[in-house]
């Protein structure tokens, strides 16, 4: 078993969050769900193939070695990305189905969560922590 903890440099995580925010804002501005496809496909690729093209492009612009940046936990970021992909998928499909109000709601949810994370509070981290604590408490009571 490896002692190395997987992590992602914070600037790459922030770049991914900004792409989500910008694409969601474009969707809200123009009423076009196709803008959601960029972060959606990047997120799906990151989950399925462990390769996020947005982060990979951003990695080229890092001024220091990736290890020199504040690390973000890889497992936590995967959990957050799954939540984002669910919201982006729901928004995208809603726009395709003509349910624009539902599409707007999901675009607002994902944009708000990503923007709040940029500001320093990770909603997905909070949910993940609560889930882990719930599972832990269940094992204690058994």
What does the overall shape look like? globular
CA(first)-CA(last) distance? 29 Å
Any idea what the radius of gyration is? 16 Å
Q: What is the count of DSSP helices, taking H or I runs of 4+ residues?
A: 6
Total number of beta strands: 2
List the uncertain runs.
none
Q: What is the makeup of the main sheet?
A: 2 strands, antiparallel
Q: What fraction of residues sit in β-strands? A: under 5%
SSE run: EHHHEHHH
**Mean pLDDT over the full residue set:** 95
- Side by side, the strands of the main sheet go 1-2
Task: Kindly describe this structure.
The chain is mainly alpha-helical. Helix content is 73%, strand content 4%. The chain has helices spanning 10-30, 37-48, 53-59, 74-97, 100-119, 123-141, and strands spanning 7-9, 71-73. The chain has a two-stranded antiparallel ribbon with strand order 1-2.
In short:
With 142 residues, the chain is mainly alpha-helical. It has helices at residues 10-30, 37-48, 53-59, 74-97, 100-119, 123-141; strands at 7-9, 71-73.
Q: What labels would you give this structure?
A:
142 residues; two-stranded antiparallel ribbon; mainly alpha; single chain
Would you spell out the secondary-structure blueprint of this structure?
Elements: E1 7-9, H1 10-30, H2 37-48, H3 53-59, E2 71-73, H4 74-97, H5 100-119, H6 123-141
Antiparallel strand pairs: 1-2
């Amino acid at each position: 078993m490896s002692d190395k903890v997987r992590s992602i440099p914070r600037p790459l995580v922030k770049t991914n969050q900004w792409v989500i925010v910008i694409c969601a804002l474009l969707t809200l501005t123009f009423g076009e769900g196709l803008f959601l496809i960029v972060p959606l496909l990047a997120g799906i690729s990151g989950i399925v193939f462990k390769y996020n093209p947005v982060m990979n492009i951003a990695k080229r612009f890092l001024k220091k070695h990736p290890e020199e940046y504040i690390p973000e936990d890889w497992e936590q970021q995967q959990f957050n990305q799954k939540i984002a992909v669910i919201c982006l998928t729901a928004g995208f499909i809603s726009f395709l189905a003509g349910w624009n109000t539902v599409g707007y709601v999901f675009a607002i949810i994902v944009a708000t969560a990503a923007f709040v994370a940029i500001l320093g509070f990770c909603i997905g981290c909070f949910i993940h922590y609560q889930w882990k604590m719930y599972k832990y408490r269940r094992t204690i009571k058994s």
